Amino acid sequence: MILTGPEIAAAVRDGRIRITDYTDAQVNPNSYNVRLGDTLTVYAEEIIDPHRDNTTCTRHIGADGYVLQPGELYLGHTVEEVGSDAFVPLLFGRSSVGRLGLFVEITAPIGDIGFHGQWTLMLSPVRPLKVYAGMKIGQIMFFLSVGPVSLYSGKYQSTCGPQPSRYWHDAKPTVAR
């Protein structure tokens, strides 16, 4: 079951959902709008290797915005810190942003129960697209979980700003047969 907007607001008030900085104006009928932070991270190397820590570069979104280019993966972040120990959060791009040709969080929209922090956004434009810090970029929905809950305590807990992949922390080389 998905939480409605009024239930999201109630859950924030009673502590079942934590959103910093929460405002009623960002509550939708069944989601909460999140805004784009002012920092982007891009991979600096031509080939990204999941079995090692890859070099990244940081870009700042100034007051005049920042133009995203097709063929590049940008890691952004939400302004808001969002999490819950009671509900499963899912983050999707807003339809108005998708209609501008920006893919947001296509491959990894699900958050873990117990994660709290800024969300890293995977941004990929179809054409050159200017983005602005603070623009509404996505929406988080909250779903009721069923069964015993094991709270998230992984490598991205309490993150601030865009986080590159830490896949290599857990990666084990495989042998082709």
Overview of this protein structure:
- By secondary structure, this protein is mainly β.
- It has one domain: Distorted Sandwich (Deoxyuridine 5'-Triphosphate Nucleotidohydrolase, Chain A).
- The chain has helices at residues 5-14, 95-98, and strands at residues 17-20, 32-35, 39-43, 56-60, 66-68, 74-84, 87-93, 102-104, 116-125, 129-131, 136-144.
- The strands form 4 sheets. A 4-stranded antiparallel beta sheet has the order 1-6-9-8. The chain has a 3-stranded antiparallel beta sheet with strand order 2-11-7. A two-stranded antiparallel sheet has the order 3-4.
- The protein is globular and about 45 Å long.
- InterPro entries: dCTP_deaminase (IPR011962), dUTPase-like_sf (IPR036157), dUTPase_trimeric (IPR033704).
- It comes from Kitasatospora misakiensis.
- Its EC number is 3.5.4.13.
- One of its GO terms (molecular function) is dCTP deaminase activity.
Quick recap of the structure?
With 177 residues, this protein is mainly β.
